[in-house]
């Protein structure tokens, strides 16, 4: 299986590429690919989300799965986090990729929750993620999974999470990455929007409990 990671040099993406490479052939896609590790099963590829759909689609040739973990860190929300994400979905469908896994944000599809906790400072980001998630779930035929974690923390992972989420909690980046990998291995996550924060349930078990 060949997996394409859009945002492969980011905080989440670089760790995700390394984790996936233990099992799959991985393409780490970014606007400025920087091969930090010369592993046989990691390929570094240029992808610019400001490009047109056809150009983005060329980057996805011969891949089986697309992960979207890219983000502008608030610098270009409309063109990267929103329109760039949608163009990547359209490109995936154009080349016949079915499996698409999106890293989103807690309560992105629930605007009534955006005034809670740290989310109140991220309204423009929440709007971008809202419409990207909405497009993925309603306007594509992709076998999608959307993972919506809370605040990302650079802390040691515990491999334990909570998916029965009622409040926007925090997540170690390592736990988010491990959950993204586990989603690919669990076909029951297809068509699901999964909210998460760090918790007490082993990741595989937490995913199996999702209805």
UniProtKB/TrEMBL annotation:
**UniProt domain NAD(P)-binding: residue ranges:** 7-186
- Protein name per UniProt: NAD(P)H-binding
Q: What's the source species for this entry? A: Chryseobacterium polytrichastri
In terms of superkingdom, the source organism counts as: Bacteria
InterPro entries noted in UniProt: NAD(P)-bd_dom, NAD(P)-bd_dom_sf
Please name the Pfam families in this protein's record. NAD_binding_10
